[in-house]
Write a structure and sequence with these properties.
Blueprint (H helix, E strand, L loop, with lengths): L1 E5 L8 H16 L3 E4 L5 H12 L4 E6 H5 L11 E5 L2 H11 L2 E4 L4 H15 L6 E5 L6 H12 L5 H4 L3 E3 L2 H9 L8 H6 L2
Parallel strand pairs: 1-2, 1-5, 2-3, 3-4, 5-6, 6-7
Length: 194
């Protein structure tokens, strides 16, 4: 299965996150999965790629040309395939379409934007892929609470809140992804708050 991992590019985060995401990537690769990701060499993007490489997995990196040209971010140089795009939107489009499942590990605003885009597309019926948030060290606790508030105040339907799941361990994530059964949602009810 091709798995897209969205996560931090920052090289300044605590090693506890780096090690955990490397372990997740390695285990996914050992189970025969491949990675599609943003091609970064640092932060949790780099950790995911190193883990997949260590586990013998196939890695497809997707990154805008201007990242290379303007030295915005170090590019992971051990990708089996690398695709350069013109824009960030094109980058996401390729990753979203190639992926068969999504894992959101801790990250900043870029990761949030990627997560909410994938969730929005799922809510609109554009895909029915697994969507897992790795709540490592309680990183997504506040987001989980906020999403509960959004649901309680009827800015999001209950059905939408069933389109993603939070996990605290790699084994839970892997079990969820490997056994995921797409759900059919009534798009009209998603918009009425039911």
């Amino acid at each position: 299965m091709k798995i897209c991992i969205f996560g931090a590019a920052s090289a300044h985060i605590d090693d506890i996150y780096i090690k955990a995401v490397e372990e997740l990537g390695e285990e996914l690769a050992k189970r025969g999965h491949s990675l599609v990701f943003g091609a970064g060499a640092t932060g949790l993007m780099g950790a995911a790629a190193r883990g997949f490489k260590r586990g013998g997995g196939y890695i497809h990196g997707v990154i805008p040309e201007f990242f290379r040209e303007e030295s915005i971010e170090l590019i992971y140089d051990s990708c089996d395939k690398i695709t350069y795009t013109k824009t960030m939107s094109e980058r996401k489009f390729i990753m979203e379409n190639e992926a068969e499942a999504f894992i959101i590990v801790p990250g900043g605003i870029g990761t949030f934007e990627e997560y909410f885009e994938v969730l929005t597309l799922k809510q609109l019926g554009r895909h029915d892929k697994a969507l897992a948030l790795y709540n490592l060290e309680g990183y997504y606790d506040e987001l989980e609470n906020f999403m509960l508030t959004v649901k309680k105040r009827k800015f999001m339907s209950f059905a939408c809140s069933e389109m993603y799941s939070y996990f605290t361990s790699p084994s839970e994530i892997i079990e969820y992804i490997e056994n995921y059964v797409p759900q059919k949602f009534d798009l009209s009810k998603l918009k009425t708050g039911e």
